From TrEMBL:
<feature type="domain" description="Putative exodeoxyribonuclease 8 PDDEXK-like">
    <location>
        <begin position="19"/>
        <end position="255"/>
    </location>
</feature>
<dbReference type="Pfam" id="PF12684">
    <property type="entry name" value="DUF3799"/>
</dbReference>
<dbReference type="InterPro" id="IPR024432">
    <property type="entry name" value="Put_RecE_PDDEXK-like_dom"/>
</dbReference>
<dbReference type="InterPro" id="IPR011604">
    <property type="entry name" value="PDDEXK-like_dom_sf"/>
</dbReference>
<protein>
    <recommendedName>
        <fullName>Putative exodeoxyribonuclease 8 PDDEXK-like domain-containing protein</fullName>
    </recommendedName>
</protein>
């Protein structure tokens, strides 16, 4: 299947290819759920569109140089009622502030330079993967991913590891960067990995921003995490194993039927 910008996020593309977000959507440790992932792939469940998603798209459209088209294509960005009718909704006005922060930092401009929204595919762990690089600059040996996040400094409780983790581990961003790096290497036949960078701007007021790079060691470690989990994901996606329900996500809550009555002590916080 030939991927383009218009079919990259399609159901068909997601069924044919694995992507990092799809992989994570199967894993409870990254907030995923096998039952929801399968229902999403076969079209019986559609995630309710979240505002935060649009804010990310808004900032990405700026990076791609297509913000004007994006605004024209999405009238929902504008307020339709009251005194503010016709103006950008306040959260998207704040996106403009975030964009200004990025535009005014020369190192960000440097990190985000290169070809935009580059689609690459390669076979990894026995299945085809697709990636989209926000900014691709192989001439200087880097690529960059742009993220609009709530905050950088928070800590998240990892129930499996019984420990706090930072946003990189919590959202599986090291996994994303490692798969992107490996797919780029395989797709181009390059001998060495590029150095993945992440440009982050927060939704705080005023926004914080940061550029983070990843080294070969974390790329290898993160690829191992994928390797250790991919066979289960492949089996569930192919319908060879029954998807497990988490009973917590949006899909599971919508389709929940109580199987057993819980003892009160099962409701542990940690
Ligand atoms: Zn679930």
């Amino acid at each position: 299947m030939q991927l383009t910008k218009s079919n990259y996020f399609s159901q068909e593309a997601n069924r044919h290819y694995m992507s990092v977000s799809q992989f994570k959507s199967f894993l409870p440790s990254y907030g995923g759920c096998e039952a929801q992932a399968v229902a999403t792939l076969n079209g019986t469940y559609e995630r309710s569109s979240v505002m935060a998603f649009m804010e990310g798209h808004y900032v990405h459209a700026w990076n791609e140089g297509t913000l004007d088209e994006f605004k024209a294509d999405n009238p929902d960005l504008y307020s339709s009622r009251g005194a503010t009718a016709g103006q950008l909704k306040s959260n998207f006005q704040h996106c403009n502030t975030m964009i200004e922060v990025l535009e005014n930092d020369p190192l960000v401009t440097k990190a985000l330079a290169g070809e935009k929204e580059v689609i690459l595919t390669a076979e990894l762990f026995g299945i085809p993967w697709k990636v989209m690089l926000d900014s691709y600059n192989p001439a200087v040996g880097i690529f960059a991913d742009l993220k609009a996040l709530k905050e950088i400094d928070g800590k998240w409780w990892n129930k499996d590891a019984q420990a706090y983790e930072n946003f990189l581990d919590h959202y599986g961003y090291t996994i994303q960067m490692s798969v992107y790096t490996e797919v780029e290497k395989l797709a181009t036949g390059r001998e060495q990995w590029l150095l993945p960078h992440m440009v982050i701007v927060t939704k705080q007021n005023p926004p914080d921003h940061e550029i983070i790079y990843f080294d070969y060691e974390v790329i290898q470690q993160s690829l191992n995490i994928v390797k250790n989990n991919i066979e289960r994901v492949k089996a569930v996606k192919a319908g060879l194993a029954e998807p497990v329900r988490c009973e917590k996500c949006e899909y599971c809550r919508q389709t929940k039927k109580i199987q057993t009555i819980k003892h009160f002590s099962e409701l542990s916080l940690y």
